User: What shape does this take?
Amino acid sequence: MTMEERRLMKGNEAIAEAAIRGGCRFYAGYPITPQNEIPEYMSWRLPQVGGRFIQAESEIAAINMVYGAAGAGARAMTSSSSPGISLKQEGISYICGAELPCVIINMVRSGPGLGGIQPAQSDYFQTVKGGGHGDYRMLVYSPCSVQECVDLLYDAYDKAEKYRLPVMILGDGMLGQIMEAVTLPVMKDPSTFPKKPWATDGTGVGQGRRIINSLYIVPDELEAMNKKLQKIYDDMCANEVMCESYLTDDAEIVITAYGTVARIAKSAVDMLREKGIRAGLLRPITLYPFPKAEFQKVIGNDSVKELVATELSMGQYVEDVRLVAGGKKPVKFYGRSGGNVMSPDDIAAFVEKEVQL
Amino acid sequence: MERIVIAGFGGQGVLSLGQLLVYAAMYENQYATWLPSYGPEMRGGTANCSVVIDAEKPVASPIIATSDTLIAMNKPSLDKFQMSVKSGGLIVINSSLITDKCANTAAKAVYVDANRIAHENGNNKASNLVILGAYIRHSGLFPKEVILSTIEKVYASKPQFIPSNKACFEAGFALD
Assistant: This one.
């Protein structure tokens, strides 16, 4: 595959193919709806490129296989959906503690508990505030289209290796199941990837021991480690923020949403504009780091009277929106849950009913 | 922009009909989304998908509240979705399985005896393509030739079905 290709693909399939073209050569996972096309695709596609696919005995085993593969220098990946991602949290914390790069996909389903299989965004807190224990952060992307899945996954390992931490993709069943035309980039050549002088891959004999570990029993050593990690996270926050702004320049009402919900909100903005209501949209593409400066700039516009945060949960993302608004502008909340998805008409109706202009 | 809901029993080619439209859009360098129902209701037998096609700009919402077109392959689908079709919209009804008349009088209803026509054209499984032919004729969404070449490309791995699929599409397109 030396040429770019145009194909019609499901989000889940595109994620798998783009990860492989970005260098993924190891996948371990355990089945769960609505992300099963990812392991299914990986199971036949990875062997074609000399990679390894393992259907693990559990989600916990899968994340620890990724831990091991990443420690040995492989570009490794796992995917699951909400209950399965909960099971992986211990492994994610260990991977962060051991400073290992990997890619983790969460195609969120509604919860809590076993919940349902329909689209939801109720894992926001778990994803951006640390679902596992300890002071750690991940680079969290929230793509809204199949092409954006491809674009983000293609470079995800480069980012993960630059900062030596997991990149997580937060999606939902809508993103996984939707089909759109995509342009696939050329396969990256693994021989061009940066060397990993820390990886336990059998090289570097006589150059000192390479240890993959997250145990620091001496408080001063662990505090130094925590400070080092924090510096890395600060660096990531300074460099990796991504955000889309749509018709916000003259907006009186700014709707904000992420992922697939942001697409629905964009249609709502168009509907409101047709009725003469000056609406706009702010869409974070990185959920961590949160696009603080981009939000503050729009919130500071004199034209903006109110924000509306809309999401598929009972109110998680809205907390970060209120935090960044800092009381300067009011923030209203419109959420659906249980796997029910709002339509553009629903969001437009909420704005017309609840927002005073 | 064209927002189409396609619904029927599992096995009637509801999902593949939607995919054919999105392939045609892709080959014509237009923007399109295909979103299937994937809930537990599929195990009970009904299936539907939402297709949005836009010639000018990327599709925002793949979720359809008000549709421009409904393709109803069975009665539960007509009952469930017909009132969501906009005034002046189009409802294509598989009259082989649906004896009711359309209750949404603000929309234009087109009745197609799709199962019989598919049978007469040598492919009992291609009632969806008969319906597609009628839809393309009444909507003018794509030129006929675009769909015919899309059928050839999409079914390239099953060439034995291409002639009867094209015949079923043409038969649907020829209806008044």
Observations:
- Chain B has one domain: 2-113+140-156.
- The two ends of chain B are 25 Å apart (CA to CA).
